[in-house]
Amino acid sequence: MGKILVQVWGGLGNQMFVYAAGRALALRTNSTLILDHETGFKSDLYKRSFELSKFRINIISANKIQTFNYRGGSFIRLLSNKIKRHIPFLNIKIFQENNFEFNDKLISNPNTNCYIKGYWQSEKYFKDFSNIIKQDFSIKTEMPDSVLKEASEIMALGERAIAIGVRRYQEVTKFINVKLTEKEYYLKAMGLIAQKIENPVFICFTQDPTWVKENLCGKFNIQFAKSKDQNNGAIEDLYLMKLCKHFIISNSTFYWWGAWLADNKSKIVIAPNNWLNKYTPNPDWVIID
Fold this sequence. Notes:
By secondary structure, the chain is of the alpha/beta class. It contains 9 helices and 11 strands.
């Protein structure tokens, strides 16, 4: 049986994309999925950590040899990246994503032994196993009473519960590829929802409520998801987002997953067109400027 090694990194949304691509590749090739959940976080600028253990997934962790976590391993890693082979496991190819561009080879020409590195931000990488991915992303973390209270309030709204995910990247000090989603997009999206859903209530998930209050509040009924502690905040907000019926998201992988995992078969998902990977938004979503 082959081995699919996956380097996990980034925030929760990116970790989920990386896992989903690797999981589907392992299923496609009848291989064992092994997660390298150390390397990608050693020098993380935002001090993020591995969060996939909060889901009901079977985690097989990479060993020290597989993660180059040994004396002289940094040099061996550089050499391995250069020859695209995982020394000393020369049968394992290193397969790296290129600037967020969609790479069909991960699907059409899968390798039974490889170490994949990238973000893999598209449903195309795992659509053939989407039901299994959704099962894997069942949340096992127990929700506190405060979150359960929020959940009951969202469910009581029924069809009127609209999640709006506003990401302003305020933590980013130097913009390289990130493109901000501006207020015109959100206002237009809320207007479109208001034409289809009577008396909508927009449940706002954001780390920058001040910006939302200054730019989006006034015309529409916007309520804010309560702030959470850093340890479980992301998984708790994901739990709440999934309960909403319709979605307006920014170019954030975290909000992408909230919309994708929601069970409502008739859900409306509105997304912007400023993603780094043009295949990140799903074709059945409403894409606007």
